[in-house]
Design goal:
The protein is α/β, with parallel strands linked by helices. The chain is 47% helix and 14% strand. Strand 4, helix 4 and strand 5 form a beta-alpha-beta unit.
Length: 195
């Protein structure tokens, strides 16, 4: 991930806001909760768009039908993206959101953080071991549309300067704990300790 150097962010306080999800489009990833959270935020007049990237399955077909029926042009399925396209979405989005029911070590979350993205992630599993809520990202309990919507709104209403400070901490978290050189050294040290 060290080849993904952080880039200058766009103006985070400017609307429309954009939320980005990357991963498998399936229920366990919290996709439905994320869509309904954004729908409730938009009902309050907050101009936010949701972009979903990743491999699609049955759930995405069902959701697409509901989105088309409701004319929800604010929710866009992007399908599979190249690494360069992913990088652009992480950099340009206001928030990268990963509300999974449970994750072990979420690579997409680490990628987003390496680029200085503001991340809202599930408090279940490995993301809570990487993110300290309010310091280098935000945590939210899974399966709760109302709390997810409140967390997204609070981040959107945050002053630009505070979000920039958090973005710098996300970069430092990855650099200090998950850089390629650091992980390689830990692996080598582990194998050397075995012999």
């Amino acid at each position: 991930m060290t080849d993904w150097a952080p880039s200058p962010k766009i103006n985070l306080s400017k609307q429309p806001f954009t939320l980005f999800f990357s991963g498998r489009i399936q229920s366990e990833k919290g996709i439905e909760e994320l869509i309904y959270a954004v729908k409730s935020i938009r009902a309050k007049g907050i101009n936010v768009f949701l972009y979903l990237a990743g491999r699609e399955g049955k759930i995405s077909l069902d959701l697409r039908k509901e989105i088309e029926k409701g004319n929800w042009d604010w929710c866009v399925f992007l399908g599979h993206l190249t690494r360069e396209q992913l990088k652009e979405y992480y950099i340009k989005s206001t928030i990268s959101c990963f509300p999974s029911w449970w994750e072990n070590m979420p690579y997409t979350c680490l990628e987003a953080m390496a680029l200085g993205a503001i991340v809202i992630a599930s408090s279940n599993g490995g993301m809570s071991e990487v993110i300290t809520d309010g310091e280098n990202g935000f945590l939210c309990p899974p399966l709760n549309v109302e709390v997810l919507a409140q967390k997204i709104e609070s981040v959107l209403s945050m002053e630009n300067q505070k979000r920039e400070k958090i973005a710098q901490k996300t970069i430092a978290t990855i650099k200090n704990n998950f850089s390629t050189a650091l992980i390689a050294k830990k692996n080598i040290d582990y194998y050397n300790a075995l012999f």
